[in-house]
Design brief:
The chain is an alpha+beta fold. It is 25% helix and 27% strand. Bound molecules: flavin-adenine dinucleotide. Belongs to the oxygen-dependent FAD-linked oxidoreductase family.
């Protein structure tokens, strides 16, 4: 018994020490994530396709006969025409492929994957209409940077900027807000160009240009990649603004009553729930004018280039508790992690360098998303994104998200709390992945968009590497 306690204490001490390595974002230059496509015969034939985690949920290997890398809409049209003429199945794969589900697999082993890696140009920014037109492989990072150069911003985006505009639209990705049209990026699409298969008398492929008001746009702007290849997207931007963000931790006794009203109190509100600790991190985050003083930034710690040793230690420690079925150990570990993150203000700084206190006020383009680990040059994997599959013993997890209509949120939270009371330590594992992240999104006219105003609950948890 004493030995076991000693072992756990040592592990926690070691974990705490290694955790310090997380704190230094730039120990050295990190390695960018691997390509999701690798081919054995030359660089474009006999390929396997995966996601950024190196494993689909069903652990199957996805194969494709060929990958192509169009560099323009004209080339894309030709590739789609050739594949249509030869009745080849095709699917789009992106630069990093961050979706967990097997969405980019063309099926069988003789399909075609069309990569948007080289469709990465910002085509136009119209300052008068405040619209930006980009190719579909442009990342959220590049989109934010290009808009900011024109003193414009996209109001809501997913928090991780390593996504492409084509991929995030296809999956209906969002930030968190109940303001205006809500937090889903597809609500801000004004035009979209799509390359689709066509009959022989149209040379087997055609470009569909859809504008706001066209009913087909409701089908294509969230389409899981099955209605054609998005070539270009135009988005409505807004004038630059600042945000004022304060994180507040409270106990979760009134969470069921607070969760919905909190979403209406702050434009960029979200909640991170630590059910084992009975705590909730409330994000009080609002738009403020640009003349309010502050030059803060949010560079979320979990998305920074992280020392490989720290990644491995984190996983190693979690795995020990998992293997020993030690739920209490996980609870202690999660307290250590969450209190460390709180001390570090989760990656917020008041001036881009250090955190001096709340509120953190900064320009929208510096506050809305981050993801430095995806955008650096090679360093032989000394550092990486925590989930990089090339690292033995990297973070490996699954995520389940449920959208709960706002009028059912209270019951849902009460039900979860009842489960927690039955097994108080059982949900601590979720806290090792930032807790249950709760984000607001609004109902949409997009066919695959939200049917009602909702609170999305993200549950991220340990996944075993081997079967
Ligand atoms: C660290 C992290 C944080 C995240 N945070 C959020 C968040 O805050 N909010 C949120 O909603 N989601 C979030 N996600 C999930 C993410 O938004 C989705 O997984 C997103 O779809 C991934 O975009 P991608 O560019 O990697 O596309 P992929 O995963 O590569 O592709 C997704 C689908 O889109 C299709 N597709 C891609 N491009 C095109 C195109 N040009 N034409 C037609 N089809 C296309 C693909 O075929 C595939 O079916 C996060 C993911 C990660 C890894």
């Amino acid at each position: 018994m004493e030995n076991s306690t000693l072992t756990k204490s040592s592990i926690l001490l070691l974990a705490a020490a290694i955790l310090l390595l997380f704190l230094f974002p730039d120990l050295s230059t990190p390695s960018p994530p691997p390509s999701p496509v690798s081919c054995t015969n030359g660089i474009t034939n006999n390929c396997t396709v995966t996601n950024a985690y190196g494993m689909f949920p069903d652990r199957s290997t996805c194969r494709a006969l060929k990958v192509v890398y169009p560099t323009s809409e004209q080339e894309l049209l030709q590739f789609v025409a050739n594949a249509t003429a030869s009745k080849t199945k095709m699917k789009v794969v992106t630069r990093f492929s961050h979706s967990i589900p097997k969405l980019s697999c063309p099926g069988g082993s003789d399909g075609l994957v069309i990569s948007t890696l080289n469709l990465d140009r910002v085509l136009n920014i119209d300052s008068t209409t405040m619209q930006i037109t980009v190719e579909s492989g442009v990342t959220v990072k590049a989109l934010i940077e290009a808009a900011a150069e024109a003193n414009l911003v996209i109001p809501y985006v997913p928090y991780w900027f390593g996504l492409t505009i084509g991929g995030l639209l296809s999956t209906g990705a969002h930030g968190s807000s109940l303001n205006g049209k809500g937090s889903a990026v597809h609500e801000y699409v004004t035009e979209m160009r799509l390359v689709t298969p066509a009959p022989a008398d149209q040379n087997y492929a055609t470009v569909k240009a859809l504008k706001i008001g066209d009913p087909d746009l409701d089908a294509t702007k969230v389409s899981l990649g099955v209605l054609g290849v998005i070539s270009q997207v135009t988005l409505q931007l807004q004038p630059m603004f600042k945000r004022s963000l304060t994180f507040v931790t409270r106990n979760d006794s009134d969470l069921a009553d607070q969760a919905v009203s909190f979403g209406y109190q702050h434009e960029f509100a979200d909640l991170a729930w630590y059910p084992g600790q009975r705590k909730v991190l409330y994000r009080k985050d609002d738009r403020v004018p640009v003349n309010v003083s502050g030059n803060g930034a949010y560079d979320f710690i979990g998305f920074r280039p992280t020392a490989t040793l720290a990644i491995q230690t984190y996983r190693f420690t979690e795995k020990i508790f998992e293997t020993e079925n030690d739920a209490d150990g996980k609870c202690v570990y999660s307290q250590l992690i969450t209190s460390t993150l709180a001390i570090l203000a989760y990656g917020l700084t008041n001036n881009g360098l250090i955190f001096t206190g709340y509120p953190v006020i900064g320009y929208q383009n510096k506050m809305e998303a981050s993801g430095g680990c995806a955008f650096r040059s090679k360093d032989g994997l000394l550092t990486a994104c925590p989930w990089d599959p090339r690292i033995k013993g990297s973070s490996f997890f699954h995520q389940t998200t449920v959208s709960i209509p706002l009028d059912r949120v209270k019951e849902f939270i009460l039900d979860l709390q009842k489960l927690r009371y039955l097994q108080p330590a059982a949900l601590c594992g979720l806290e090792l992945y930032g807790g249950v992240l709760m984000r607001y999104a609004k109902s949409s006219s997009a066919y695959l968009g939200k049917e009602a105003d909702v609170l999305d609950f993200d549950f991220t948890y340990y996944r075993q590497v081997e079967d």
